[in-house]
Specification:
By secondary structure, this protein is α/β, with parallel strands linked by helices. It has 2 domains: 163 residues, D-Maltodextrin-Binding Protein, domain 2; 117 residues, Periplasmic binding protein-like II (D-Maltodextrin-Binding Protein, domain 2, 3-Layer(aba) Sandwich). 49% of the residues lie in helices and 19% in strands. Strands 1, 2, 3, 4, 5, 6, 7, 8, 9 and 10 form a 10-stranded mixed β-sheet that branches. Helix 7 links the parallel strand 5 and strand 6. The longest helix is centred in the first third of the chain and has 32 residues. It is globular and about 65 Å long.
Length: 336
């Protein structure tokens, strides 16, 4: 009796192996899309490096609410203020790169900080990838209601004749409000006293109370006070006038300095987050950003909705990081 396999048995075994191999290949091909579709399997968190009530918080919550409905998971906003925007941004940079921790990024913490600090715990271009930018805002320079100066030109002339007599508030050392104002006074050749606060809300309290003279804030949050007449709007930081305040000139129009800055806002993730997860988040956030009702919310708050591709977003972020970090170093502004 021979121990050799019959042709039929050999054919049957080969057939089974072939079937199993095909099945395995099929399952392998399905594995990646199935894994991608499984994300997110639990709540996401958005780290906001500023206290509640300011521009960071406003945009973060507007996006989080709609993104949550889009992906069918809670998107929880966590305010982590401290050291300007450093504490929250550093926390996000060190978070697990799994797509479940997002950063609310802006010109302030992504671009300006790169020039403000000699030794920064993160590198914006190396450690973060943009998921998407949703809106940009100009800043509005406001004066306390009873300040006897009615234009940016008058403020600069008064400051030139009276060095360190006028004061300006910010939401903290290294914040966008601080850097923009410091750059303006530097380029105009005048000296004012900087009064840093822990967030925009505290700065407003002293501006409305007459304890500080001037405050640059995002037009979105400045709008309420300007329209209520509790402060005087002197200038806007954008390249063009804001439709919400058509009577308010830009800094450049005021003739005191050639300077413009618009602060964009969007979600970022640690750069080591898997490409499939980044792509999934980009697709879902893009759907949110395209919603007409959200764009209307941003417009009513004085913002300019953005609709950028992933490549356009990376390009804009890189340009502003390089431009503003260089300008901040040239001016010599320090956060600490």
């Amino acid at each position: 009796m021979s121990n050799s396999h019959s042709p039929l048995m050999t054919t049957t075994k080969l057939s089974r192996r072939s079937t199993l191999a095909s099945l395995g290949a099929g399952l392998g091909a399905l594995a990646l899309p199935a894994w991608s579709q499984a994300f997110p399997a639990r709540p996401l968190r958005v780290i906001v490096p500023q206290p509640p009530g300011g521009g960071f918080d406003f945009v973060a919550r507007a996006l989080a609410e709609r993104l949550s409905k889009q992906i069918g998971q809670p998107v929880v906003v966590e305010n982590k203020p401290g050291s300007g925007t450093l504490v929250g941004t550093d926390l996000a940079a060190k978070a697990a790169p799994d797509g479940y921790s997002l950063l609310m990024g802006s010109v302030s913490n992504i671009a300006l900080n790169m020039g403000l600090y000699e030794k920064l715990s993160y590198d914006s271009l190396r450690d973060f990838e943009p998921v998407g930018l949703a809106v940009s805002y100009s800043y509005t320079l406001m004066a306390r209601k009873d300040l006897p100066l009615n234009s940016l030109k008058e403020v600069v002339e008064h400051a030139r004749a009276n060095p360190d007599k006028l004061s300006y508030a910010s939401a903290g050392n290294g914040s966008g409000q601080h850097v923009l104002a410091a750059a303006l006074w530097h380029l105009a050749g005048v000296k004012l006293v900087h009064v840093p606060y822990r967030g925009a809300q505290a700065a407003y309290q002293d501006l409305l109370g007459g304890r500080v003279d001037l405050f640059f804030d995002l037009s979105s949050t400045a709008r309420t006070q300007v329209q209520a007449g509790t402060v005087k709007a002197l200038a806007l930081s954008g390249a063009e006038r804001n439709p919400m305040h058509p009577q308010v000139p830009t800094i450049t129009e005021s003739g005191v300095a050639q300077l413009d800055l618009e602060s964009w806002f969007g979600y970022f993730v640690p750069s080591k987050t898997p490409a499939e997860v980044q792509d999934s988040l980009r697709v879902e956030l893009a759907k949110v950003v395209a919603q007409p009702d959200l764009q209307e919310v941003f417009r009513k708050a004085g913002g300019k909705p953005l609709n950028l591709s992933a490549e356009q977003t990376r390009s804009l972020v890189r340009r502003d990081v390089e431009r503003w970090s260089r300008l901040v170093r040239e001016i010599g502004i320090k956060a600490d």
